[in-house]
Amino acid sequence: MRASARLAVAAALVAAPAALFAQTRAYAPGPDNIAFPGNFEREFIRYATVDKPDRKIVRFLYVNREAFEAARPGEPLPYGSVLVMADKRARLDSAGSLLKDLDGRLITEPDYTVVAVQQKERGWGEGYGPDRRNGEWEYASFTPSGERRNVSLDGCFSCHLQARPQQDYAFQFWDYVQQRRTAPR
Ligand code: HEC
Asked: What share of residues in the chain are helix, strand, coil (percent, to 5)?
């Protein structure tokens, strides 16, 4: 093989995987952009726990560590933010009333029922109309074992868009970042 031909083969070998990579990474709007963060309970940081007595659930809110550390008050949340809202059912007594612990918080059943995720990456959101687009955020809904739930995500976009456009479409995590706390030494 002549040197130039060898070079061409080498270039093709280098280019092929790169092209494949680019193809699989091309962004199209939708929940499939979000991978199930199966490690959230161990590796993410739980920044809030919200009792919802009206709905008889408790919501556990987690963020990935990188975003937890990079987020700054008054600024949009960092690229790479993965926010998780995982629900558990509240425990009821035999009469159907909510059980509370000594701190007055709801007591939960052991298992999660739903794992909702919102994730922000550079360039995401492109392709949604103004009545839907939430900046660069996507939304997804999973079962606790990581299957995609076949539910409409319209409400995720419209509610977060309506309620929190000035807080980068986030709720508790935005608020947490504005008043981040550490324990006194
Ligand atoms: C009717 C309004 C509404 C809808 C619909 C809604 N959310 Fe939310 N979302 C909220 C509120 C309010 C919070 C703050 C937690 C709370 O108080 O329940 C929240 C919090 C979150 C959080 C945690 C982020 C944070 O900063 O608190 C995630 C993740 C999330 N929602 C994802 C979703 C997904 C995914 C969907 C659709 C499957 C969805 N949400 C639908 C109102 C909504």
From this structure: 30, 25, 45
Q: Place 183 in a pLDDT band, splitting at 50, 70 and 90.
A: confident
Tokens of 174: 């935005």
The pLDDT tens digits for 80-96 are: 999 999 999 999 999 99
Q: Is the dihedral of CA 103, 109, 114, 119 positive or negative?
A: positive
How big is the CA angle at 21 (ends 19 and 22), to the nearest 5 degrees? 65
Architecture of domain 26-178: 3-Layer(bba) Sandwich (3.50)
- What tens digit of pLDDT does each residue of 67-82 get? 999 999 999 999 999 9
Q: 44 CA distance to ligand 1 centroid (A)?
A: 18
Q: What is the mean pLDDT of residues 96-125?
A: 98
Residues constituting the chain: 185
In the chain, the N- to C-terminal Cα span, in Å, equals 71
Structure-token match 């987690």, residue found: 62
Residues having CB closer than 6 A to ligand 1 are 50, 59, 61, 83-85, 116-118, 139, 141, 153, 155-156, 159-160, 170-174
pTM: 0.88
